[in-house]
Amino acid sequence: MKVSLYAQLGTCLRRYSSREADHSFVVEAEYVFAEEYCGFAGHFPEQPVLPAIVQLAAVRYLAEKILGCLLVPGRVSGVKYKGMILPGEMVRLVVRIESGDEGWLADWQMLGAQKQVLSSGQSVFIEEREVGYGKG
User: Fold this and answer.
1) Residue 31's closest CA among 108, 102, 127?
2) pTM
3) 79 burial class (0-12, 13-18, 19+ CB within 10 angstroms)?
4) In a domain, 1, yes or no
5) Would you state the torsion angle of the CA atoms of residues 48, 119, 112, 53, taken in this order, to the nearest 10 degrees?
6) 63 located within any domain
7) How far is the first Cα of the chain from the last one, in angstroms, to the nearest whole number?
8) Position 46 confidence tier, pLDDT thresholds 50, 70, 90
């Protein structure tokens, strides 16, 4: 049975909250990626580390929850990975989402337990219906 690491993100999301600020949404969430989470499979067998693609997927997952629509990843820029996320660690994801010419712009940071920046960047998401993947 094939398991989707994106579909399993919901089991890793512990809590989230959002607020509106200056024509945008500011969202804060806590994620805990358990050792059993499929995203760790093979990355790396001796010392599991959360892959970059899962971190980007967590941003998209949270944006979809707040905006209430399906999103397609667009451009990603300025991404920096400064620390490792290990199984069982609680990380805080802070995202500022605003509407822009290209779609929804997300400026995000993944923070560790000591509030240190583990990763950060900017992502653009397009509503699925705008790119023709939606129904109808």
Assistant:
1) 108
2) 0.90
3) middle
4) no
5) -40
6) yes
7) 30
8) confident
Locate 4 and state its tokens.
């989707």
**Helices and strands counted in the chain (H then E):** 2, 6
Provide the CATH number for the domain around residue 87.
3.10.129.10
Q: Is residue 91 part of a domain?
A: yes
pLDDT of 49-63, one tens digit each? 999 999 999 999 999
Provide the number of structural domains found in the chain: 1
Residue with tokens 């802070």: 94
Rounded to 5 degrees, φ, ψ at 88 are 85, -10
Q: Pull the structure tokens for residue 96.
A: 């500022």
For residue 125, tell me if it sits in a domain.
Answer: yes
Dump strand ranges (E) for the chain.
13-21, 24-32, 71-81, 90-100, 103-111, 117-127
Residue 105 amino acid letter: L
Q: What angle do CA 96, 97, 101 make, to 5 degrees?
A: 135
> Which two tokens mark 18?
């959002």
Q: How many CA atoms lie within 13 A of 124 on its CB side?
A: 11
